[in-house]
Amino acid sequence: MADIIRKKDDLGNIIIKVQEDLCHLKENISRITIERSGEVIDIQALETAIQRTENGLRKHAEEYLNTVNNQILTLPSIDENAGRTDQPGKWKPKSEAVRDRWPLVAAAHLSPGEQHKHATNMKIMYDASNPSNRALLNEKYGVQMPRLNRRKEEPAQLQKISRGPTVGNLSVVPAAFRNNPYLVPPVPENEGKKGMASLLERGLVPSAAHISIVPPPVRLRTMPLHSRDEKHATAPTGGISGNLAGLHLYLSSSAEPNSIDPILISTRLAQKGIHAPPPSVVSKKSASKHRRPPIQPNTELVPYNPQPPPVTPSLHGPDYCFTLCDGLIDYRAPDLLAFKQHYCLSWGGILSLLESLTELLKEYAVPVAIVHGQRLAELAMGSELDIPPAPEYLVSVLENYVDVCELMHRPGQRYKGVGGVGMAAVKIQSSWRRHRVRAAYLEYRRQKWAAGAIAISWLLHAQMVRMKKALKGSHQRHLENFRSRAKHLAANWNHIRTSRRTIIHIPSLGYSQPLRFSVNDLDIQQNLQMGRLCDIQDPSVDVIYVCPVKQSVEVQQYYSRLLGLHKVVDSGLLEDAADMQDRFKILTPEAMESFQTHNMCLSTLLKYSPQTIKRIKNLIKGKHAYVVGGVLHKDDLAVADLLNVPILGSEPEVAHLYSTKSGNKRIFASAGVPTPPGEYDIYSLQQMHEVVSQLIIDNLNIRRWLLKMDSEFGGRGTAHFDISHMKCYSWMLKEYRRYGPEEWRKKWAQEPALLKILEELPEYLSQHGKLVNKKRFPSWKKFLETFLSQGGVVEACPPSESITNLTVDMLIEPNGEMSMVSCGDQIHTGTPLECCGTSVPQSSVDPDILHSTCMRITAACKSRGVMGYLSIDLVTFIHPHTLEQQVWTTDLDLCYSDQLSMTQLMLLMTRGRLDCRSSQLEVPAPARDVKQPRRHGEEAATPPTVTSHYAVMSTQLRHTNLAMVHYSVFFQMCKAQGVGFDIKERQGTLFILHDSHKRQSLGMITIGEDLQGALMTFARNLSIIHQEISAPNMQGETNFKGIINDIEGILGVTIENQARSAEERLRVHQKKKKFV
């Protein structure tokens, strides 16, 4: 094998020497021509001879390179024990091998079968892992592949372990450069050799520095853009000459045609990716000996032993591009013939694919298409049999596939080619059929959707009907059970009220859902009546109080101690305080946690709290019990049905009907009690304007009118307006004086004034109407919309500057007995239409007149099936013309009131009796421990057995700063300021705690021997509390100031009345003396 390599090296050296000789000869001829430029020398013969020599040399070089490139060589065996040398091994090809491979030059003349066999053998020889590789090399070329022996692994020598630091101290950035980011830190030259990463980690190079390489490894240059119309010129190919090496001889490095360049041998094998080993040492020495320094060769010599290519050779061959015009194949074109000859073994699949491509081009009338032969061959080899590729894959084999795709996607292009007319007809028919079927399908879909919607609506309607029917049946069953239990309660009431019984208090506000959602803190509003616990002052009564808020242990202990003082009040000794926790229970429904944002009334929450229901059943088992509710709701009947107990109250529908403002007017009209002028059941704007206009004309002495909504409570749905600013009001007064009272009542006299009022009233109301609660109704438009949707009444305001409102609580017992259980004068805050407390008992109206009026109203309610507690609001004033006291009935609520709950606490802590018939609170006189000494002969004064007391109470005290003070701190503060209750004297101040979470509201009651003292104590307590919990820069939101101002006005009137009564008594006494 070394002989073969050596012979090839000698032959190469010979060729190189010949090339160098020719180069020297050309140079000498050129030099002679330059030296003898003045003489005429004929050198044509020499140039012709040199050209013939060059052609012959090129021919023999091609044959030689073809032989060498087709020769397969192997490396010698590696001997493990052989010595290594720096000189490369020299080898020469065997003459037999060269003679055997020489016929392969004319491989193009072999038959197709032999070519296929040759290609298969070449693939086997290229694949070293093929089991036939070793045998085929030995058979064809006589090459015996060596067997490699594995080297023995020598054990690694152990090195000595180095101890101590192996790296020296690294430099650190000076402090001046660390503190000043604008200074560039010094980097020594030796530090730069440690790498950029080390410099960055130690801070020698800032982390934000822009690092670049100088000079840059890549230099930017503008890329030339060629026009798409320019085509790359490819040289025509043909025959076998494309595979042979081309030997180019450049006789000069100059640009002249007669100059001579150094010999440069290039081959197309290098273009195919075949890399040869470097040339031998002999060839390098010979080339360097004869080569002059200025001459630089462009490439290396041709490799003698190329390695097999990594992929199929056909994939790296020429492109073989040819053109198809109008979808036709020119089988005699040289490009196509060369392509066919190169891919003759797979021509069948390529031809089928080419025919499919031409059919596609004909269908779309593509005028010119340039086929890339290599892509076509690849697609033909990759496509499956009998499965033609998709059109997009066919078009991808074209050089101008972008233009062809653009042309094919042009609308209507398909109908310009072969079969376009038929295709257009098919397209029209298919489009029409599609449209017809689509229309039918859409109609079917619409009908199906409509049928589904109708079916679902019907199912929902049927389900709703069934549910309504079931709920209606359930409500009817609850109502029937309520009526039957009410009859049983009425029949046994005398026995039940004197025997051991349990009262279940459910202070629920069963308003409509929209009204409940408009109430802020509905749970706290339902818990203002904690005074109901004081029913345990009757020894035969136990109380179960359903609380709408979760009370803390601190609040429960407060009520336990407060209720345990009633025995202390009797004896006056603190040692007699009793534990009353077994007499009352405070229960909170567990549904409160699940429905925190739904604003449900308490009875609804209790209905969905089975654990609380079960506990109440266990507490009332075997005892007489009944429910005392608040504003009754239909769920109160459901709760009573679950507990199987009666309700001391009316049916929910009856209670809601007569609790509205229009229902109140009907009750008052049937009772025959005096009411303010007005109209009710107003539901339209035109009706309201006509009613207001007529009322103004009939009552010119009344200057303020009220608009009240039917369903609102607490003055929230009230507005008022004064007519004194109307343009036509002064004119109407003149007309009234001109006609006189008798003539003015006639319609013909009122008609001009009525027309003027109707014309002016709409705009006047929008400008001068004033709202009582602007948080609930921020504008007149909003108020008017709600007023007309709910209905309401128009009512006159008393024509007086001094007005007093009263609240009277009545009870209709199940056996029909009627009694007055509480009465008091109202205390207002802000406006006279918002009540926040009362003073008990009332002292504004003659008790007989008040009792007579309230009994008539209660009798009217009883005749309409009303039972239980009800609250009546009245107003009294002095008429400006007659100077007589007038009493008007203004409102009626069929529910348990806040005043009644505070009255129960007052009676518990004073052990007194409220006589509403005489409007007196009779309190037993306190026991005296020390007897008073008396003079000789003086009779002992008998102390009075009872004394008259007054109480001022409120459950609507609000202050946002109360939330910052815990109850224990609050009571310590009150104790330090002298705010408390004297048990022996049975007077002082008591508090009602509403909740333990927000703590922004509370209730308070002050008891004194006279009304003036109780009012002053109440106002003083509010002032002290406000000063203790407020700061100059944090006053908070409160109604304390409004209440204090109203109490001060009441005190002024009280003092004036007392002075007048004293003067009258003095005048009467003086008259009696004169008479005597």
Automatic annotation (TrEMBL):
Domain of life: Eukaryota
Region described as Disordered: 275-305, 922-942
PROSITE patterns per record: IQ
Record domain IQCH-like ATP-grasp: where: 652-917
Sequence ranges of Basic and acidic residues compositional bias: 928-939
A Pfam family that the UniProt record links to this protein: ATP-grasp_IQCH
UniProt xrefs under PANTHER family: IQ DOMAIN-CONTAINING PROTEIN H
Name of protein: IQCH-like ATP-grasp domain-containing protein
Lineage: Eukaryota, Metazoa, Chordata, Craniata, Vertebrata
